[in-house]
Amino acid sequence: MLLAFxxxxxxxxxxxxxxxxxxxxxxxxxxxxxxSHGVPLLGGQAPETHAWSRFHARYYPMxxxxxxxxxxxxxxxxxxxxxxxxxxxxxxxxxxxxxxxxLGILYAWREGAYRWQ
Length: 117
Fold this sequence. Notes:
Blueprint: H1 2-25, H2 59-86, H3 88-111
Helix pairs in contact: 2-3
């Protein structure tokens, strides 16, 4: 019990000493903090719209397709490692996965998700 108390006290003292060191050693701005310090920059320019502004609906289908391709890669990398151990069973499972993914891509193509308007 005493050891836990000493450890907690040591950690707390360490945290406060680091916070104090940061406060004392950080560079200070002579002009003070202005509104521009809190504004995110977009390529060196001030943003024209708010960060929570809405995007056009045509971006969403492309984002979903991108997520589908990213999920494919997240599944295929570990599959390549497991394929050596499982053999034909892993090959069939990947074929089923790629078939389902391909059907989704063909459906998106048929619906016009890839047409940029």
